[in-house]
């Protein structure tokens, strides 16, 4: 059954100019190479034939199929503009907020179709949290930033519970020690790395099941990046994490599986080690050896 | 199912209800604002439309020499002074004979507008050969009669509550039966100046006054505004105290109440420099100062939207900074500058308060013939008429507003078209 | 020569001097071997240089003379009237001078005029025509002399282009400086007349007095009789009407802006935005007419049907219509402010599972708050300074009340009333208008400066 789906995937020809522009290779993307599927039932996310169109029928994602396992960190890499963010945003229906954006295909979270009429985007986003490329704390105090989600969703019955959630989330995000004396000062006053950890704390305060991270460290310095990477490794115990990254080292360090996207196609999805040591597709190899991208 | 999911689900109903309510408030705000607009416009148009027609009465006037007191070979001056009033009265008396009561006699005369005798005067002076003949002439009815025929006087009311009494109604019914009453397009409204009599009042002098005032405003504010914008955007040193001061001033002046500009005009232009009061010249000067910030701000935005590559290109082939700006940048920014200017002129055209301060509030019958002759402008004319209690003036005020709005809409349309037409994506 | 005649002559002279300047530069140029010639600049710049010499001094003198002519002539005339009038009070002297000037402008009244005034008026007329002749001759002479001087500067070595560009720069700086001059003009005209007013009426009486009835202070012996110029009722009236207006405009404008920028479909936005702009483009005199003739009677009859007594010029009617006028202003300012909130902020909130309204209420509005406060202050300044609506729809009597169903008067209404009558310029009454103008200017200036500062800081935050 699974194999059959694989065979039916579109065959596309992709022209890629080499960095020097000397020659043009023609590569064939025929389905996804590697191990895009897990043992059916165990998948947290189950994505089949996902296509995304922006306004004016500009297609950004072509027939993507993949499974995402429980408590795994899956990294998504690829040249910029290849659709990583677009795909990531399908999983908590953030693309709904973009005017004219259309998503087709079958995406299931724990077996439930997230596009089902019964599904509620608000609930979905509470279950599938998101951390963005640029730290975007709200113009509120540190405390209120973290308490934002629990308050919205009515997760705390009283102030003490809320205090508890805030403290635990900040602790999990490794930020509590640094800010415990200034919880009431504005979140925008923190450093970039701290702001990003605040955003992570804000996300986990709702106790989601999945956390989507879109290049969470691209705006940070190396030390802050290292802190966040450690944090991600710890979070893996309680959450499923999908992380888009432009840094291959980062993908190699923190993820179990890596997906390589190219011009809207999912070219290869395999164990991280395999992708970086023995890429199966020419395009993947070109990318990780730095020949373009 | 996790506890989060359960808790979230429990809140959803309430939250979506709130969402719906909020959305509704937003939509309702827009709907309400636009409803106000619709009410305002329908109110004005409803009141103003009747003003575009006037009621006329057909008189058979005997222009015989004895009545008029002149003969065919009279000088123009004699023709001008002839007794047309009696001729009008005589014709009314023939139409409705047997009026003896003094009050009724007065009312009889008041059936037609005071303009009737001047209508005859114009006819006779154009063609003195008419003397000695009997002419059928359509003359303007009095404004009360006009209001009656526009359906604004209810004849079922008790007589005491009506401006038109029973005996007058008898006359009017008779005249109407004889086909002597008709409604025609109100040309007077567009060809005359102000008048104490509503049926003779027109907007021509105010329109011409507005024209002269805007002429002064445009010919001053456009060059000055563009020059100032060019300096600030292209030449001015950055972080210079004076330049910053100028910018702060421009931004503030854009928000100073217009009436304050009127005080400035009164104290400086009239009291200090002794320029003539009530003249379009001063009106134009005051409006120039008022619209300059608008034009400067719009022009700067237009200049800023010209990409640096254009400047670099011209400078690169050896043009001087001034040449570059005047020959390459300014032409590209022109559509934007013109758009801003038209919008500024539209503001100026609708402005009233500062012009009251400098005396453009006089009663002006004659069409002004220069920028220094006493005049009024259309919005001030509206203000003056709005103060008059007569129903017929209310009608004309609304009509004048319709004319003003037509001008404003056309100006804004031109601005929009200009912007669309020349909009460039760099 | 008439002003128009002089200006036309100057234009002709300008064209002429351009032509000969250019021609002369070409005549002086020696062609060079490699093509071109030895002129420093293009010939047309020599033309412009001569034009500048010919026109600028002449124009300056012309403008200066024209503005100073009348004050100088008047003061000279007043020094020629018989001695017994010389030591009258300033008020009376200005009365006399106005009467004489009236005669000058209406010569048909000369025959019947007082011989003394008649002599003065005729004197004035003579001096005026003399002044005109001298002005014409001087300006034309300057223009011609300028042309000659300019021509002497036309030499191949002259850096004509640089000189012309300098002149252009200076003209541009002059134009930009008009903004400063305007502010100074406003400040000095209101300050100067206000000082004269405060010379007659103590400033404390004006600022803290609760009784305003300038009409009763018409006679000289009454002028400044304390209590007549207490402006508090006007301030209260102004605040009352502005508050009503803001109560309507702020929520409606803000909610419209929110709906348009966060909810509306592109189609709705494409129609609703320009429609709101129409509301902004309607002249205030039209709103005034609407308020006075439609809204006020409506409110009155509605109030009466509830058994309330409503003044025919109620504050409510003026405030309501003023509110409608300010809606689009508030909404377009808020729209700018809301659009400046970065998309990342919205994404962050939606990503947490917030609904749209939760995002707006808890993230966007707090983020945009400084900008919204700025917009509110600008709207308040607009309401306080609005004139025509209140002149037409608010009352004249200075009632001190905060009941919106009663008639109140405002600062702007009183300015217009005091200055549109036929009174003398120097009376306490007219001067009071300038004192009111001063308070209006100061208050709106503070509001504007604070608002613009807040909005600028807010913009910088998200740039
Ligand atoms: N809001 C949008 N509207 C239209 N096109 C978009 C939008 N966002 C992204 N795209 C397009 O979709 C493609 C994929 O973008 P994205 O998912 O942001 O790439 P990545 O995150 O891999 O850099 C790009 O070609 C981009 O131009
Ligand atoms: Mg991206």
UniProtKB/TrEMBL annotation, chain B:
CDD domains found in the cross-reference section: TM_PBP2
A Pfam family annotated for this UniProt entry: BPD_transp_1
Flavoprotein as UniProt keyword: no
Topology versus the membrane: Multi-pass membrane protein
Keywords noted in UniProt: Cell membrane, Membrane, Transmembrane, Transmembrane helix, Transport
Statement: the UniProt record of this protein carries the keyword Membrane: yes
Subcellular locations according to the entry: Cell inner membrane; Cell membrane
Membrane-spanning parts: 24-45, 211-232, 253-275, 281-303, 399-418
Entry similarity comment: Belongs to the binding-protein-dependent transport system permease family. CysTW subfamily.
Protein known as: Phosphate transport system permease protein PstA
Lineage: Bacteria, Pseudomonadati, Pseudomonadota, Gammaproteobacteria, Thiotrichales
From TrEMBL, chain C:
CDD domains noted in UniProt: TM_PBP2 (cd06261)
Location of this chain's protein in the cell: Cell inner membrane; Cell membrane
Keyword set includes Phosphoprotein: no
Membrane protein topology class: Multi-pass membrane protein
The keyword Transcription regulation is assigned to this record: no
Keyword terms, alphabetized: Cell inner membrane, Cell membrane, Membrane, Phosphate transport, Transmembrane, Transmembrane helix, Transport
The protein, known as: Phosphate transport system permease protein
Organism of derivation: Thiothrix lacustris
